[in-house]
TrEMBL record, chain A:
GO terms for cellular component: proton-transporting two-sector ATPase complex, proton-transporting domain
Keywords: Membrane, Transmembrane, Transmembrane helix
V-ATPase proteolipid subunit C-like domain mapped to chain residues: 27-84
Membrane topology, record value: Multi-pass membrane protein
Protein name (Swiss-Prot/TrEMBL): F0F1 ATP synthase subunit C
Predominant cellular place of this UniProt entry's protein: membrane
Lineage: Archaea, Methanobacteriati, Methanobacteriota, Stenosarchaea group, Halobacteria
Matching InterPro entries: ATPase_proteolipid_c-like_dom, F/V-ATP_Csub_sf
Transmembrane helix found in the keyword field: yes
UniProt key word Transmembrane: yes
Pfam families associated with the record: ATP-synt_C (PF00137)
Entry's transmembrane regions: 21-41, 61-84
Native species: Haloferax marinum
Subcellular location field: Membrane
GO MF annotation list: proton transmembrane transporter activity
TrEMBL record, chain B:
SUPFAM superfamilies, per database record: V-type ATP synthase subunit C (SSF103486)
Gene that specifies this protein: atpC
Role noted for this protein: Component of the A-type ATP synthase that produces ATP from ADP in the presence of a proton gradient across the membrane.
Cellular component aspect of the GO annotation: plasma membrane; proton-transporting V-type ATPase, V0 domain
Keywords of this entry: ATP synthesis, Cell membrane, Hydrogen ion transport, Ion transport, Membrane, Transport
Protein species of origin: Haloferax marinum
NCBIfam families the record matches: AhaC, PRK01198.1-1
Binding partners and assembly: Has multiple subunits with at least A(3), B(3), C, D, E, F, H, I and proteolipid K(x).
Database matches in Gene3D superfamilies: ATP synthase (C/AC39) subunit, domain 3, V-type ATP synthase subunit C domain
InterPro entries: ATPase_csu/dsu_sf (IPR036079), ATPase_V0-cplx_csu (IPR014272), ATPase_V0-cplx_csu/dsu (IPR002843), V-ATPase_V0D/AC39_subunit (IPR050873), V-type_ATPase_csu/dsu (IPR035067), V-type_ATPase_csu/dsu_dom_3 (IPR044911)
Name of the featured protein: A-type ATP synthase subunit C
GO biological process, any: proton motive force-driven plasma membrane ATP synthesis
Entry's localization field: Cell membrane
Length: 85, 348
């Protein structure tokens, strides 16, 4: 039994040593995606609050828009990772 | 933040905060106390109250116009809030706003009892609670109090009213019915309230409301010397009194006052309590209770900006504004000097 597993183990170890489970570009893509997810979550609250404020006073449209897209900077910063890889 | 999973609290709170900043401030009040009723109506026409004053302007004038304008506007604002809110937030807000349902039910019952015409009852209603227009118009159409009790089956007032109706038939006075309505309102305030970190402050506020109501009732019974059992009027849910305790305290006002002084409201009410002991003035004490509640309202909403508390804070501030403007209008009509009216106002 053990003799049968041993070659498999060495094979797995040598493959693990040869490289990480996912490639660097895939990891970078994942990082950007997670950052976008965070930005979306932040915008959800800000956006609905901004809509409420604009409904009361239309002059707040510009302020509301700016505040709503501020978390977008998260995604832009995360995009830097893509160029670094 | 919300149990519904949406961003509803953010939306409602943004709108409510905008409305709160549009409430009258010190400066407006200073101007208002120097105006006559007609000028106050004109001043209101140029403010948030424009639509109501214009709509009612052809039917009423003077202080009546101001009063109905205020009531309509308050009802509209609070209905708006209930329209916007969803899920758990709605439940929390509706708890407090059912106060106006209780007010409407009492007004309708009193109107039927005194055989007031339907139109006159209708103008006195404040449609800010949960009842929709259809239910209210059916209640208004009712010719007998029994019909009102039947129509209300299925609401929070059902159980208490049915029991109280038998008492009413026996004695023929409205007191048992009105008590049943008030009691139903106060008892649902804390009923099934899920207390998290955020709603803790809200619960404290509701408990204070109940405690103060109990204290007020006990003092009134003690003062009036009437042979009433205070436990009949006791409302469960407060932290200050137990039913049995209140019965003993109501016969002994001094002990009641010292009990309140030792409670968690002692600091806030200490001046009012001294006044009560010295001057024997119940009116002053009741105003102090109102002011203490308002103080709660001021601090509400800063610790948890995305909970129900900023909304409740707005609701209280709005009620206070309506009371203040009404006091100014009535005071001016009666010819009181501005300084005296200013003393009556509760300004934050």
């Amino acid at each position: 039994m053990i003799e049968a597993i041993e070659p498999l183990m060495t094979a797995l170890q040598s493959e693990a040593a040869s490289g990480p489970a996912i490639s660097p570009s895939a990891a970078a893509a994942l990082a950007v995606g997670l950052a976008a997810f965070g930005a979306g979550y932040a915008e959800r609250g800000i956006g609905s609050a901004a809509m409420g404020a604009i409904a009361e006073d239309e002059d707040l449209f510009v302020n509301g828009l700016i505040l709503t897209v501020l978390p977008e900077t998260l995604v832009i910063l995360a995009l830097v990772v893509v160029f670094l890889v | 933040m919300s149990a519904a999973g949406g961003s509803n609290p953010e939306y409602v709170i943004a709108r409510v905060r905008a409305r709160r900043s549009a409430l009258f401030g010190d400066e407006e009040y200073r101007k208002l106390v120097r105006m006559g009723p007609a000028e106050i109506a004109r001043f209101m026409e140029e403010s948030e109250y424009e639509a109501e004053i214009n709509a009612l302007g052809s039917r009423y004038s003077g202080v009546d116009l101001i009063e109905y304008g205020l009531n309509h506007n308050m009802a509209k604002q609070f209905n708006d809030i209930l329209d916007w809110a969803d899920g758990r937030l709605y439940d929390l807000i509706a708890r407090y706003l059912r106060k106006f349902d209780a007010w409407n039910v009492k007004t309708i019952i009193r109107g039927i009892y005194s055989e007031t015409p339907r139109d006159e009852i209708e103008t006195d209603l404040i449609r800010a609670g949960e009842f929709d227009d259809r239910l209210i118009s059916r209640l208004l159409d009712a010719a007998e109090i029994e019909e009102v009790v039947e129509l209300l089956s299925g609401t929070i007032f059902a159980d208490g009213l049915e029991a109280a109706y038998d008492d009413y038939e026996d004695v023929g006075v409205l007191v048992p019915l009105e008590n049943a309505v008030d009691r139903a309102f106060y008892e649902q305030l804390l009923d099934g309230l899920v207390v998290g970190e955020e709603t803790k402050q809200y619960r404290e506020f509701l408990e204070a409301e109940i405690d103060f109501r109990n204290a007020r009732n006990a003092l009134r019974i003690a003062r009036s010397g009437a042979d009433l059992d205070p436990t009949d009027y006791f409302i469960e849910g407060g932290t200050l009194f137990r039913a049995a305790e209140l019965a003993a305290l109501a016969t002994n006002p001094d002990e009641l006052v010292s009990k309140i002084r030792d409670s968690r409201y002692g600091d806030r009410l200490s001046n009012a309590l001294s006044d009560l002991e010295e001057a024997d003035s119940l009116i002053g004490f009741e105003r102090a209770l109102d002011a203490a509640l308002l103080e709660y309202a001021d601090t509400l909403g800063y610790v948890f900006p995305l909970s129900v508390t900023p909304i409740i804070s707005y609701i209280l501030a709005k009620e206070r504004e309506v009371d203040n403007i009404r006091a100014i209008a009535r005071g001016r009509e009666a010819g009181l000097p501005p300084e005296e009216i200013e003393e009556e106002l509760v300004i934050q």
